[in-house]
Design goal:
The complex is a heterodimer.
Chain A lengths: L1 H27 L5 H9 L7 H11 L5 H15 L4 E2 L4 E2 H36 L4 H15 L2 H16 L18 H38 L2 H8 L4 H7 L1 H5 L1 H5 L1 H10 L2 H7 L4 H11 L2 H29 L7
Antiparallel strand pairs in A: 1-2
Chain B lengths: L18 H11 L5 H8 L6 H4 L5 E2 L12 E7 L4 H8 L5 E3 L6 E3 L4 E4 L5 E5 L14 H12 L13 E2 L2 E2 L1 E6 L2 E5 L7 H6 L11 H4 L10 H7 L6 H8 L20 E3 L8 E6 L5 E2 L11 E7 L2 H9 L5 E2 L9 H6 L1 H4 L1 E7 L4 E7 L6 H7 L2 H10 L2 H8 L5 E2 L13 H5 L6 H10 L20 E6 L7 H14 L3 E6 L2 H9 L5 E6 L25 H8 L9 H15 L3 H16 L5 E5 L3 E6 L2 E2 L5 E2 L15 E2 L7
Parallel strand pairs in B: 1-13, 2-14, 16-25, 19-20, 19-21
Antiparallel strand pairs in B: 3-4, 5-6, 6-10, 7-8, 9-10, 11-12, 12-14, 15-23, 16-23, 17-21, 17-22, 18-22, 24-26
Amino acid sequence: MFGFLARRILYMIPTLFLVSIVTFAIIQLPPGDYLDTLAADMGEAGSDNNAAIEALRLQYGLGEPMYVQYGKWMSGILLHGNFGLSFEKNRPVTDLIWDRLGWTFLISLLTLAFIWLTALPIGIYSAVKKYSAGDYIATFFGFIGLAIPNFLLALVMMYVAFRYFGQSVGGLVSPQYLDAPWTWAKFGNLLEHIWMPIFVIGTSGAAALIRIMRANLLDELYRPYVVTARAKGMSEFQLLLRYPVRVALNPFISTIGWILPTLVSGEIIVSVVMNLPTTGPMLLRALLVQDMYLAGSLILIVSVLTVVGTLISDLLLAWIDPRIRYQ
Amino acid sequence: MQHIKSKKGRWSFRLASAGVVAALCFPAFAFEEAPMLKEMVDAGTLPPVAERMPNEPMVMEVIEQPGEYGGTLRRAILGGGDQHNLVRTIGSENLVRWDATWSEVKPNIAESWEVSPDAKTFTFKLREGMRWSDGEPFNADDIMFWYEDVFSNRELTPTWDSNYVGPNGPVVVTKIDDYTVKFSFDTPNGLFIQNMAYGFGYYPTAYAKHYLKQFHIKYNPDVQKLVDAEPAASDWVQLFGLKAGAMDTPLFWQNPDRPTLHAWHLNNAYGSTDRVVAERNPYYWKVDSEGQQLPYIDKITYDQVEDVETILLKVFNGEIDYMNRHVGRPSYRAVLTDNMERGKYHFFDTNDLPASTVNLMMNLTNTDPVKREVVNNKNFRIGISYAMNRQEIIDLLYFGSGHAAQASPQPGSVLYDEEFSKEYTEYDPDKANEYLDKAGLTERDSEGFRLGPDGKRFTLTFMVADVFGVQFPDAMELATAYAADVGIDFQVRATDRSRLIEMTTNNEQDAYIWNCGGGQADAYTQPMCYLPQPSNSVNWARLWAEWGVDHTKGEEPPENVKAIFDAYDEVKAAATPEEQKAKMKHVLDLAKAELFTVGLVQNEPAFGIARNNMRNIPDPLPIAGQLWYPAPYTAQFYFEGGKALP
């Protein structure tokens, strides 16, 4: 077990190194750089402020070759924990992302909880009561949940909230609380808003897991070991949870590896539409304007999370399913 | 409909013009100040209003009537690239300003100015006792700091803004006394005062010496200590750039410590918070005709959003008090009308009227000799112009809003010329064919496309970027079909804005579709469609434009183009507005005869929304690239009742 862990962690190092190079190269692939985007934005001022652009080119060191820029960036991260400077915000990347990462983790963990809390019981129910009215209803909504793009659902819900409930839409708190200190009233206001993104981001995941749970459990329910346990007089509820559900849980565990990166990068469009203070809109904007250190750092963090997440899900799988070998 | 009441002469601050005496006289007039400031004065944390104001504050003409204090103006701002949202509400305080109708230049920071008869020197008289937003005095030394230590320092300013450069070199600024500065050029520069009233005239009065000198190596030999403490800078030049960024970049709005002369001052930096807040500047140097210190409105807040549609929803909910940015698109008008009652707002017009909203620009200095020969034939351009069904474009893409016109001054501008505007704009494929035949493209290939002089199919590649929300890709698709009807092969290549700008500034394109400024009073200073001008975005003869700036660069243009260059030089040499207008008419006449570009559509005025109790709002609001409106007129906006409607 320990050898397995050590080996896996060692493998992570070259993987992440390659990822960082690819990330940096891809961000630089489109022609131009941040200053071209800025110049286009500044064109609105009515004439060309080449004076300011020239000064900024020196300021940001954008004239240097790519490997020099990469070397500076990497040595900053490794030696000083400094992820570089965001051109657009003119602040160190590390100042900018933690706030947003915090919100992202909160929303994503709540979403994960929402998905499991809804998908597990419904999935079990619709497998056990196959072809019942309840199963059909769950299946119907499951497919709708899978089919509707999240951002569309977000738009519809925002419209309904705006049109019929007169709620201020977008963001996690109402405008009057935006720069207020944390109070119970503000917390209550947060709860009034936060269920919406959780529901929107959670539906498709929950729908998928309901279907997977149902299919897996159906495979298990008629296995001989279930029949044996039942023949021995085990209570139906205990039997269900202890044996077939445990086996059917496998996909829940193995998807943890994918869930961690979506914590950071996933649901970008939903976050943009619903105006959430998460990393998604920041990453999108950084990529659009070629704010390369900000974008590179976010992608690097996502990659680390993916690799770590895969490791965690492998370990959990090995723990929950003794049939898996460390090979 | 403009209701500017001139309050001049009702009573005058000129009574108290002599320095120290003024301070003694003012209690008689009893300046009024905002209640929030009065509290601070009573608490002893702020000096009394008379001490905070210059001896002769600027008396601002108001649009409707003197207002009342109070309230928070709520707006929304995009998370990035939206610094002009701030510039156009609180920035833009220059030495001189345009009036609220964009027809006349008036005093602003400068109390008065003089132009020498040869239009080479410009002397500005500043206001004694005027102060920065942190309470420190503002005077000629601040302007000299900008000139000597920022503008003339080639490390800080590697290239100069064109406003401050004549053909033979940059402006020379001299201090006459503490409140008088002189700007001199060695050639006539009659448009200098106009230019100083536009946005980029802000430079000389944006650099507070007492604050910025700590970041300048000339004044602070120990500046390296500050550099070490700042993670985003590695030398003093970078540090200075960070602390004293240009106003049209985000940098300016990311340093709330920098003192300004604006009506409101930022509390926090743009880009890293959910809400940007600007609070009133207690040292603002303008009053209304009743002696009330401006601005009327206490605070402006900008809620950061990621998506324009979110702003719309906020408008419907009454969470935006005044905005034309982002929401003033024709396609939003219907849904905004539906929600007017709910959001308690109404519309106002914005006269953002360029010379052309949709303009086809063929590269007259194309590096391909065959294409160059053809597009330089005026008959070819006339043929293309007749081939375009402008009304169909307007009906299909812009819901019928707009009118067919060449790139020319708009109706309503004093420079409007109906013939220039309407020439060759009717849709007439027969005439188009006739002119294209005259241009020598008589042979056709088996698919019906005309052959160029080299015997091959004549093809122009149009670059198109989806910008400004005016559906350029769709317009180009229609234009391509109209051109094919008369046997001209347009190829369309989609690209993004920055790539397109890079291509056109390097003279790499055949042709592209874009807009063109200079439709109103900005025709004087932004004549980019009337003669070749080096520009980031409008380049239809880049090599000639480069030659026009520096005869050793680019390529010498033909005589007819040189004649326009000469005519425009005469505009710049003219010292009086009347003379300038006559000379500008001449430039436009010469441009009309050339049809350099093929203009398709001029848009109708766009619009903005204002909550129903907002007063003193310019309607129509003149606005243009260089005219950073509604600032500085936001200072006289007020809420009837002292706060935003619930």
